[in-house]
Design brief:
The protein has two domains: about 1-65, 2,3-Dihydroxybiphenyl 1,2-Dioxygenase, domain 1 (Roll), CATH 3.10.180; about 75-115, 2,3-Dihydroxybiphenyl 1,2-Dioxygenase, domain 1. Helix content is about 20%, strand content about 40%. It contains two helices and eight strands; from the N terminus they run E-H-E-E-E-E-H-E-E-E. It has helices at about 15-25, 70-80, and strands at about 5-10, 30-35, 35-40, 50, 60-65, 85-90, 95-100, 110-115. The protein has an eight-stranded mixed beta sheet with strand order 2-3-4-1-5-8-7-6, with helices on one face. Strand 7 (about 95-100) and strand 8 (about 110-115) form a beta hairpin. The longest helix has 12 residues, at about 15-25.
């Protein structure tokens, strides 16, 4: 698969409350890492993710991140297919780059390119 799902993000207004809920519900190990609460992938299957609070709309959301070796090219392709850009390519220091796009049904999808790529 050229573009696997590699990460997830769950947004809410109160990450402490979200951390409590998801750690109790699923037994997830969740630790502070910068501004985000990172969810450890504690098995050989599944992907890691994080909980966040943006401090602005959208407060409540769930999105996936798809691996992209060329974020600008993927954005152009999405736009050519009727999608749109929500957040242009943005650097996450020492980690990589991401962008958010909307598909033709207005679902938000993240694109992710790690630094090592």
């Amino acid at each position: 698969m050229n573009h696997p799902v590699v990460h997830f993000e769950i947004g809410g207004k109160d990450t402490t409350r979200s951390k409590d809920f998801y750690s109790k519900l699923f037994g997830w190990k969740i630790e502070q890492s910068g501004a985000a609460q990172m969810v450890s992938a504690a098995s050989d299957i599944g992907i890691g993710g994080h909980l966040s609070s943006l401090g602005h709309e959208p407060h409540n959301y769930v999105t996936i991140y798809v691996l992209a070796d060329d974020i600008p090219a993927m954005i152009k392709k999405a736009e050519s297919l009727g999608g749109s850009v929500v957040i242009p390519e943005t650097e996450v220091p020492d980690m990589g780059h991401f962008a958010w796009i909307k598909d033709i049904d207005k679902n938000t999808i993240g694109l992710w390119k790690p630094m090592s790529q």
